User: Which sequence fits this backbone?
């Protein structure tokens, strides 16, 4: 998955081709996870979702297509176009973050209106913290746009973080809830695992960006529970509810 964002130099095309299948794997994970609840009904013409959900889905799929498209351009030697579209890619990433936050608060409001205040407060936490973890990797990818060996791996990690919701909906593949955490991590981290395996084959070492990415995913899976249970979050959730009402 080569750069979504511009880079002043790019590695050889042969070394970039691995990032196209990585992008495809990420897309397949997203489609598989959301197929029973969204994409399947959408293709059958029976989906029942709020307009913001459709917007969120389009923006999310758009990001995956940009990742695959930019990887393909880099792997086929179209450096100039890759760089040109990279400016759009970073802006799109920030737009994706904004839509994620807007969607989280829109669903929060809908649940509060339905009288499900505790559920609304609980389910607001996950998407907000997802975006908080995704955004630094996006910013870092932009900051390292002229160092493609770091940049492209940051894009892999950022995209992998976005797959959290899809993987946790894979009860039709991974088994009923609560899904075995090891199964979740095995599927969720697949794009990073592929990148790590490629590094080991080519250079006999794993790039540190991948290790940081794994730590971020583990934090999202296990480490943020204390924050959710903290008085700080409870006070914030109560304030948001009061503000909304």
Assistant:
């Amino acid at each position: 998955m080569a750069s979504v964002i511009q880079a002043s130099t790019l590695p050889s095309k042969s070394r970039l081709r691995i990032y196209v299948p990585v992008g495809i794997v990420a897309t397949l994970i997203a489609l598989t996870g959301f197929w029973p609840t969204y994409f399947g009904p959408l293709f059958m013409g029976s989906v029942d979702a709020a307009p913001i959900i459709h917007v969120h889905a389009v923006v999310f799929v758009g990001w995956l297509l940009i990742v695959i498209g930019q990887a393909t351009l880099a792997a086929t030697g179209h450096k100039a176009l890759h760089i040109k579209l990279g400016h759009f890619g970073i802006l799109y990433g920030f737009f994706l973050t904004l839509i994620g936050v807007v969607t989280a608060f829109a669903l929060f409001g809908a649940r509060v209106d339905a009288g499900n205040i505790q559920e609304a407060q609980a389910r607001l936490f996950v998407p907000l913290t997802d975006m908080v973890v995704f955004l630094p990797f996006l910013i870092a990818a932009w900051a390292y746009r002229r160092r493609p060996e770091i940049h492209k791996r940051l894009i892999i990690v950022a995209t992998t973080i976005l797959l959290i919701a899809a993987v946790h909906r894979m009860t039709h593949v991974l088994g009923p809830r609560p899904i075995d955490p090891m199964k979740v991590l095995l599927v969720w981290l697949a794009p990073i695992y592929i990148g790590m395996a490629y590094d080991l084959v080519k250079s006999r070492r794993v790039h540190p960006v991948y290790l940081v990415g794994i730590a971020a995913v583990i934090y999202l899976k296990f480490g943020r529970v204390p924050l959710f249970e903290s008085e700080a979050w409870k006070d914030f959730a109560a304030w948001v509810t009061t503000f909304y009402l």
Q: What stands out?
A: Residues 13-244 form one domain. Residues 79-113 form the longest helix (35 residues).
